[in-house]
Amino acid sequence: MHSANPMASPKIQWNLMADEYDLITLREGVKLIRRMYAQSPLKDVVAKEVSPGIDVASDAALDDWLRENCTTAQHPASSCRMGTDDNSVVDGELKVRGVDRLRVADCSIMPFVIGGNTNAPTLMIAEKASDFILGN
Asked: Whole-model pTM?
């Protein structure tokens, strides 16, 4: 939070590509897709690579392109992960470690980003949070 006003929107620093693993994973994904499109039947129906373009070929060039072009797709998740280790933000009852009377009940508690839409899992997390809060 950057304001004492509870209605103010939070200021979010995404730190996209801050972890080298993220960059490596995405770069290898681009290379895999390129190999797939270079084989039949795809090579027979795809005229050319539009983005990032065939001139973006080296690892360094791909990394630069990824840093410049990757976004969140507006489904942020896993920023306040749940777990039992010292790096987790919330415990198994969704309580924020070291802060009294505060829980997190959305997809930010997911330890890893899921492979699908985050809406249904977020609803399930919220249902579970209501059980914890009500003592059920």
From this structure: 0.64
